[in-house]
């Protein structure tokens, strides 16, 4: 599948769009942050 056809979301911290990744396949509905860095900085 081409990258342009993958689902996208917007990060709750940095407000940048990010695309689906294979490692998130089983938990895509629960993914809220584009990176570990954003996840750690969610309260700042």
From TrEMBL:
Source domain of life is Bacteria
A Pfam family this chain is assigned to = DUF2256
Q: Which InterPro entries does the protein's record reference?
A: UCP037205 (IPR017136)
What is the protein's name according to its record? Answer: Uncharacterized conserved protein UCP037205
Q: What is the lineage of its organism?
A: Bacteria, Pseudomonadati, Bacteroidota, Flavobacteriia, Flavobacteriales
